[in-house]
Amino acid sequence: MSRSLLAGDPGLASMDPAITKLEDASTTIYHGDCLDVMRELIADGQVDLIFADPPYNLGKQFGESEDKWPSDEAYVAWCYSWLKLCLSKLKPTGSLYVMTSTQAMPFLDLWLRNECTILSRIVWHYDSSGVQARKLYGSMYEPILFCVKDRKAYTYNADDIEVQAPTGAVRRLIDYRKPTPEPYKTTKVPGNVWYYPRVRYRMPEYEQHPSQKPEALIERVIKASSNVGDLILDPFAGTFTTSAVARRLGRRSLGIERERGYFKIGARRLGLAQTLDGEDLRPLDKTYIKRNGRGASGGAES
Questions:
Q1: Local structure of 171: helix, strand or coil
Q2: What is the mean predicted confidence (pLDDT) over 294-299?
Q3: What tens digit of pLDDT does each residue of 3-28 get?
Q4: Over the stretch 157-211, which tens digit does the pLDDT of each residue have?
Q5: Dihedral (Cα; 204, 208, 213, 214), 10-degree rounding
Q6: SS (H, E, C) the chain
Q7: What family is this protein classified in (predicted)?
Q8: How far apart are CA 188 and CA 256, in angstroms?
Q9: Which of 109, 129, 132, 131 is nearest to 121 (CA)?
Q10: Were 257 and a residue from 28, 51, 125, 237 both cysteine, which residue would form a disulfide, CB within 3.0 to 4.6 Å?
């Protein structure tokens, strides 16, 4: 990471000792609180794209911390604090994608309308699993806001995220509205309802995190709203999926995570360290027991 991306000079010498930093030519990851890291180590107006997937205030356990605030008001106030910092880090042409719970998103939506332009309200739809709701409609989606600082100047690579258009491609319909009739285009830009399966244990991309987002979802965001060489920030990096996808797509990235265990996973996943805190960093051993039709145990597979 170039020195210009750091908020202060002389760089590492000014870094809070509570913050750990690992980096290579394209990827920088921090262990620390995102508010501290963004205030102290990331300069304003440097970032092209931010993907923010914070804790949802639903009481989940994330490493050593519980995802629970004293009140909804306290949670929303905390969200406003990091959102304000995120917007300050974006370039004038930058974009911000924000996730949170369905319960909290209306508050963030209203606040962001006064701070930037919300271009799209996206629904990430997924299949259900586990115990089903019996007395209400179970939740099968999570909301995402797509925001820009300047609605007249931002990156949106529509051609890079096109998907198959089943009507034109499969039925081979002809578009007679054009001066010279021709077949409908076989691809289209996706709408604002995205279907991606949730990351599950048996998937190769799975890491030990309770709310890991699919690489395919992050890939669409990065392809649409950044270009090769651009800088991407994830202030709630978890197991650093955003950084992993950014690297694969030729982007630079900054990731911040406050839980030490997840930071270690990111360090190993991104090849930035083989040992940390005296611990060998190894992939999760995803061994499972295969059972036959009668429920008897079969051989172990990984």
A1: helix
A2: 39
A3: 233 343 333 334 677 899 999 999 99
A4: 999 999 988 765 566 778 788 888 888 778 899 999 999 998 887 888 888 788 8
A5: 0
A6: CCHHHCCCCCHHHHCCCCCEEEECCCEEEEECCHHHHHHHHCCCCCEEEEEECCCCCCCCEECCEECCCCCHHHHHHHHHHHHHHHHHHEEEEEEEEEECCCCCHHHHHHHHHCCCEEEEEEEEECCCCCCCCCCCCCCCEEEEEEEECCCCCCCCCHHHHCEECHHHHHHCCEECCCCCCEECCCEECCCCEEECCCCCCCCCCCCCCCCCCCHHHHHHHHHHHCCCCCEEEECCCCCCHHHHHHHHCCCEEEEEECCHHHHHHHHHHCCCCCEECCEECCCCCCCEEEECCCCCEEEEEC
A7: Belongs to the N(4)/N(6)-methyltransferase family.
A8: 34
A9: 109
A10: 237
CA 146 to chain centre: 12
The pLDDT value recorded for residue 3 is 28
138 pLDDT band (50/70/90 cuts)?
A: confident
CATH 3.40.30.10 fits 3-156+195-301, yes or no: no
Stretch 275-284: mean pLDDT, rounded?
A: 90
